[in-house]
Structures are given as structure tokens and as C-alpha cells.
Amino acid sequence: MIFQFKMATRPSMNSTKSLSQWHPPHMKNTPKKVVRFNFWSDASFEDILGASPQASLEVLDVRGDEERNWAHLAQADIYHISSAKDEVPPAWLVTPQLIQRCPALVCVSTAGAGYDTVDVQACTQAGILVVNQAGGNANSVAEHAIGLMLAVARRIVESDHRLRTETGFSREDLMGHELNGKVLGLVGLGHTGTRTARLGAAFGMRVLAYDPYLDENAIAARGAQAATLEQLLEASDIVSLHCPRTRETSGMLGAQAFAKMKRRALFISTARGGIHDEAALHGALASGHLGGAGLDVWQVEPPRADHPLLSLRNVVSTYHTAGVTHECRRNVATMAAEQILQVCRGETPARMVNSEVLPDFLARLRAAADFFE
Length: 373
Fold this sequence. Notes:
single chain; Rossmann fold; 33% helix
């Protein structure tokens, strides 16, 4: 049986529309304390917050003194955290334990579209608003997904490697396939999925999409034809993942799902590690059932050099770099800083993950004696 994902809460492209009637109360000028760790960030983040009297930014050393870090986090109004799960030490992930030690915390902001470094349910229960930067990396990630499709289908990486290490083979030994005329199946049709659909269409592919949060008309408006997950797996020449990793989507694609795919189909993921079963994917590739895979995300990042998938010639691998471009990092950092200032001003943030917590979030702000006049 194919697992059908269904998430309790999902950030919407238009998440603020239902909240348009809310108007922020008058704010004091007391700057809100924003804390982040010293992971790489585009300078625009600090430039924007540093120029605003509404925010006071503290950058902590992730390898620094823990007591000092906890002291600052305990006073933080807003915690800006990396979206890369294996980049953040366990102590600094947003967990019930961290929330308990941070009584002033009213908002958690992620540094990307993903939020698997945050226990959203725990935040919701505590009245903490979670915001992300959905859409900020869409162009970069969609381009990377198409790049992986081309690299696998046209055997580009394999050709490069063999030219450097072998002799005596022919060009026909490296014959690949065009994208034109193929069926592209997208699992998830949010910002990145929509952009990938448009790029896929530009290559002459017919685009199918499975997204349980969109009806047929909405999917059509985003450039794809609606399908169930099972229909998509059976019909697609290339299956590409563009959904978040949640409790519902973890392990969504395993041996049964890969067996449903066309023989010699390609599998692409620029989503999150853990949505697909890596051992099951290796089995489907090693058996010859699937023709190749392009993988930017891994269960553990970076994967070990002896990871079984890295031993296969028909796997093109990258190190969660789909969104790591100068343009994307600048865009996401700018979006994050501007959204944090929205929170500081008491405005409805543009990209809420748990919008249902907004009333509790506002109540917590009002309860802070120095937050409102």
C-alpha cells in the first residue's frame, strides 16, 4: 500500500488572507531580542536588523560557552534557527526542553523553507509562532532539481568521471535520454514544485502533480495535471520530491512505492532526507528497476563516503546545496530579517507555519509588560 501523506498544518502561499482583519495594537519602541547562532548567513540579515531600532540581534558561537548561550536564549523574544537538521547541535534544536528554558520566546524563525529543526507541535502548545522563508529558495532549488534530472538522464557526471579515469570506451557507451516528451511527476506543488513544473514544461515534459492540499483547478493553475500518488508513480518517467518532511511524510516512499514506478524511471529529491527510504532506493537501483537517481538530501548529512548509494554510477549526489546559491542566500536572509521586523512591529508575518497559534501568540505579546503601551 502506498502511504498517502497528510500534514496537520502546512504553510500556505496565501496564509495571511484569512487574518487580514487583524490590526496590530500600538507598539512600544523597546527593541525585541533576536538570537541566532553563527552559522553562515548573508550579510543582508544583519544589515537589515542592525539598521532597525525595533530589533537587537545577538549572534552566539555554536561552539562557545553553553552557559552564556543559554543565558542569551533565555532572554530571547525571537530565535532564528538554521533549517539544516544536521547543522544544529541537538541542544539548540527547538524542542520542548529548549522551550522550557526560554520563557520569553514568542517566535521561532527558520533560515529557510524547511522547519525540521523545530518541534512545531511543541511551539504551538506553548503559544510560540513559527515562521519560515517558504518560496525564498524556489528558483535555486527548482533549477537544481532540473540540473539533477539532466545530469542523470544525460549521464553527465558519469561521462566526466570516465573521461578522467578510463580509456577505450565509445560515446555510445554513455548514451542517455532527452527530457523532452517525458512525464515529470512532482510530489508537492508549493513554491518550489510550481517553479519546477514551469521549468519542466519548458523542456517539453508533461507535468503531473500530487498535492493533497490543492484541488484540480489549483494544480492546473500552477502548471500541472492533478494525480493521486499511485497514479503519479505509475505514469511518470521522472519522480521529483518537493514536499516538507513531517511526521506524515517521513518514510513516505519505500520499497512498495519504488516498485510502483516505471521500469528505468528516474528518482529525484531536493526535498528532505528521510522522506524516501535510502535502503529501498538502493535496492531499486541496484536491481535495475530504476534507471537512476539524483539526490541532494540525505538521512544523515553529509552521507558517509561509503554510503551504498554513492557506489552506484547512476546516482548523482550533491550535499544539500540546491538552495546554496549567492542569490538564494541573499533572498532568504532578506526575507527572514524583514519578517522578523514584522513580528517586532506586531504585524501578521507573511509566512506562518502554525498560523492557528496567532491568537495565543498575540496574547503572549500583550502579557509582556514592556511590549505594548
